[in-house]
Amino acid sequence: MAKIKVEKLTKIFGPHPEQGLRMLDEGKSNADIRETGQAVGIADVSFEVEEGEFLVVMGLSGSGKSTLIRCLNRLNEPTRGHIFIDGDDITRLDRQALLKLRQTKISMVFQHFALFPHRTVVDNAAYGLEVQGLDADERRRRANEALELVGLDGWADSYPGQLSGGMQQRVGLARALAVEPDILLMDEAFSALDPLIRRDMQHEMMQLQQRVKKTIVFITHDLDEALQVGDRIVLMKDGRVVQIGTPEEILNNPANAYVERFVENVDMSRVLTAQSVLQRARVVAFPNDGPRTVLRKMADENYASLLVVNRDYTLVGSISAEVASKAVKDGVEHIESLVEETPSVTPSESLMNVIGILADWRWLLPVVDENNKVLGVVTRAGVLTALAENNDTSDSEAERSDAA
Amino acid sequence: MIPSVPKFPLAHGIDVALDWLTHNFSWLTQALSHAISAVIDAIVAGLLFVPPWLLIIIVAAVGWRVAGRRVGIFTALGLLFLWNLRLWQPTVETFTLVLISTLIAVAIGLPLGIAAALNKRTSRIVMPVLDFMQTMPAFVYLIPAIPFFGLGAVSASVATVIFSTPPTIRLTALGIRQVPGDLIEAADAFGSSRKQKLFKVQLPMAVPTIMAGINQTIMLALSMVVIAAMIGAGGLGGEVWEAIQRLEPGKGFESGIAIVILAMILDRITQRIGRDSKVASAH
Ligand SMILES: Nc1ncnc2c1ncn2[C@@H]1O[C@H](COP(=O)(O)OP(=O)(O)OP(=O)(O)O)[C@@H](O)[C@H]1O
Ligand SMILES: [Mg+2]
């Protein structure tokens, strides 16, 4: 079962939301509806979030991202549609149950931190626990744990005003984590930070996620950030979902011109993974092959080296043509003793890192699974081709949209 | 000339209404009057029982703690001067009236201010009433106070409360409404009830503004207590009133300067309370 399931969710702002709904159903545009004094926040949004997933919601300003995330804990009251959390429809909760939900299951991290300036860092972190009615010792203990998690132990008794922006947002994060929620809602949580701090926070957020395994809904209008942290991306425009998919899916198959424009300036090497440039290893060598056999295999495929694998395809290393021909002259029987140690990558390794490794490694770079079994190889030529292709498509798309 | 239009009987109407109120509620106001006057007498007696030098040390120490060394020293010197002028007793009387009136004003003003901040309808009723209360010349309140509470300190403090409560109400409401929206939202997002939101976020954040309101209330109370000497409230205002009637400018200025000194001491000390909080420094 999905952790969060959003079903045809609509939010109309204004004094007469029913009128807005009716006009939506008649197929009127957002601009028409705005003329009547109502505003479409989101319209007919549906998607699911799996437990432990890091979902990024992306879109231009005014596309409804904040409205959507604020519906998830009902800071915005949905006008129509349903939100299921663990299968329960939270749009039907009464006030008491809603407070309980917010206290224990869903926490929020805010763009401008929204820390309480009159409370110390630890009292800020403990706010949610205090609202739950926990006693002071327990609160302090758990708040300190949360502060430790975000690397702020030692700052407990400072006030937010004494902290830098990055540190303040860590407090915001600690406040959200202290109640040990299942779900974290983060509305442009890193947007107010300067670029370097922001990169650090993204990085730490991902490491943190490895440890705490929350279901995260994260808003950003920065595509690089989305690609960095997101398992999947929801792209929004004018209150509607335009595309949902993994970063690669969205980049490789933009659903329409809007998405294309969004993705055209991406640094592809950060997005593509080893998987996307993986080639089949057409031939391999085995440890008990003779050097002559190895040379012939290389000649057949025009390789300057070969991967050496066991019979079950687990990686042993590589052997180069040079070494093999010398072995022929020396009369070596098996290549086993001549195998060179070889770097390897997993399929999810980003192309950027792959390029880094290929800068020092001239031969075939093996891609292995978690059991060290060879899935395929990456070559320098393959990487360059992939990058060139992706640049080509975005260039030609840009031309097309310029012409339009 | 339009002599044929009869005068609208506003004064008569108010008189009739007040008469009716006096007639029907004097039992209540009399009882209240006795209670308040007993409290005032007790406090005055208590403060006069303490030797002036000891009281001066205590007040100066409080001033030092709250507002720093300079205010502490100024307080000590100022009060010593008042003592030396032989104005100790009227000073204590005036201070007591200000204290009582301010306590009542805050007890009324704080909840009303909170209600006005949280509820639009309350605000729409309360705010015009405040405008009315504040623009009416202060001593007009003294006239109806007499039939209800008799001549003296109680009438004075009732009129003073009416005159001095508005700033506390206004600034309490303002302080709460000024709390940034994203903090309210954060409080909501963590599942705070309305009460938790009020006591954990809104009121603490509003403290500096509320204190500014209370400071204004104290200053207004002092000015009104002085005017209230006209209905026999005694104190420093009484000294001034006497000097006027006897045409003694020297005595009049002595008492006038005493009032200024008392006002400055009250102002400097209460101004500092709440100003040093983290909320204030965050703005
Ligand atoms: N309280 C409100 N009252 C009226 N209209 C609103 C309200 N909040 C949002 N809207 C409208 O709903 C639409 C979506 O706004 P929303 O804040 O969700 O966008 P966003 O994607 O978060 O934008 P940004 O990137 O600028 O934060 C906008 O057209 C906005 O004008
Ligand atoms: Mg937003």
From TrEMBL, chain A:
Localization of this protein: Cell inner membrane
GO MF term list: ABC-type quaternary ammonium compound transporting activity; ATP binding; ATP hydrolysis activity
Biological processes, Gene Ontology terms: amino acid transport; glycine betaine transport; response to osmotic stress
CDD domains hit by this protein: ABC_Pro_Gly_Betaine (cd03294)
Entry keyword set: Amino-acid transport, ATP-binding, CBS domain, Cell inner membrane, Cell membrane, Membrane, Nucleotide-binding, Transport
Record-annotated ABC transporter domain positions: 21-263
Reactions the enzyme catalyzes: a quaternary ammonium(out) + ATP + H2O = a quaternary ammonium(in) + ADP + phosphate + H(+)
Membrane topology note: Peripheral membrane protein
Annotated SMART domains: AAA
GO cellular component, one term: plasma membrane
EC number: 7.6.2.9
Domain CBS: 338-393
Presence of the UniProt keyword Membrane in the record: yes
Enzyme class (EC, first level): translocase
Entry keyword Transmembrane helix: no
SUPFAM superfamilies reported in the protein's UniProt record: CBS-domain pair, P-loop containing nucleoside triphosphate hydrolases
Pfam families found in the cross-reference section: ABC_tran, CBS
Family to which the UniProt record says this protein belongs: Belongs to the ABC transporter superfamily.
Complex and partners: The complex is probably composed of two ATP-binding proteins, two transmembrane proteins and a solute-binding protein.
Annotated protein name in UniProt: Quaternary amine transport ATP-binding protein
Source organism phylogeny: Bacteria, Pseudomonadati, Pseudomonadota, Gammaproteobacteria, Lysobacterales
Automatic annotation (TrEMBL), chain B:
Sorted UniProt keywords: Cell membrane, Membrane, Transmembrane, Transmembrane helix, Transport
GO annotations of cellular component type: ATP-binding cassette (ABC) transporter complex
Name of this chain's protein: Proline/glycine betaine ABC transporter permease
A Pfam family that the UniProt record links to this protein: BPD_transp_1
Organism, as annotated: Oleiagrimonas citrea
TM segment ranges: 35-64, 71-89, 95-118, 139-163, 218-241
Family: Belongs to the binding-protein-dependent transport system permease family.
Subcellular location: Cell membrane
Principal location listed in the UniProt entry: membrane
Claim: Lipoprotein is one of the keywords in the record: no
Entry-linked InterPro entries: MetI-like, MetI-like_sf
Single GO MF annotation: amine transmembrane transporter activity
Membrane topology, as annotated: Multi-pass membrane protein
Swiss-Prot/TrEMBL GO biological process terms: choline transport; glycine betaine transport
Domain ABC transmembrane type-1 intervals: 91-270
